[in-house]
Amino acid sequence: MMTGKTIEFERKIKPETLSDVKIIVDESTFAGRFRQDDTYYDNIDAGYLLLSRGCWLRVRKETDRKGKHISSFGLKVPRDGCLGRLSAYEELSSLDAHGALAIRWHLGISKHAPLSGRLLCFYGYAPVVRFQTVRDVYRIAGDPTFTLCVDRTIGCPVRKDGARFTYEVIEVEKIVHTTGMVRMAEKMVLQFLDKKAARGARFTNAVGGKVAQYLKFYEPELYKKFFLQHIG
């Protein structure tokens, strides 16, 4: 888990079968299984202030396989001005003092106020998306900044027609700390995917993110407004 200000380059892919998953994670080191309870907030009265800017404000409660609990606030800000299938974000975390201060600045919250769900509500932010994810993390070549995250959503609400949202993808993610390293990160991720494809892994490339797909499933009009023109 990264803290403070980082830049995250990632590609989300959807393997066709379990055998393809095995090819993709082969030669990587298993780093642990985590259960994540994520709630995304936005200022609805302000016309979905964050979504309209391609930003994500998340409160995450995470539990590892040893039962350790970690709660944090996170804000992702796009680096390339696009929505949906973003390749690069500036990622801020409340687990770091600089990140916590930067989150308050982006949200227009007093720098002295402790971050909390109650504080977000006071400033007009409300929950818009919530889901749980089981995440298996793998390190590529022993590099803690180069990871595979095998994600599977659980416990999503049942839609009126009886259907339930599911999302199963692998995130190939490289973390860097300066803008000048983003192209290098992109190259590393694409080379990794090319290598796995050459070894026979079959997968759909550039899959949309969890929040976008969640809204497409439960709130199609909201999805059309903020995502359709960018990711189809």
Automatic annotation (TrEMBL):
Source species: Candidatus Lloydbacteria bacterium CG22_combo_CG10-13_8_21_14_all_47_15
A single MF term (Gene Ontology): thiamine triphosphate phosphatase activity
Pfam families linked: CYTH
PANTHER family named in the record: THIAMINE-TRIPHOSPHATASE
Lineage top rank: taxon: Bacteria
Residues annotated as domain CYTH: 7-179
Signal sequence extent: none
Any one Gene Ontology BP term: thiamine diphosphate metabolic process
Name of this protein: CYTH domain-containing protein
InterPro entries in the cross-refs: CYTH-like_dom_sf, CYTH_domain, THTPA
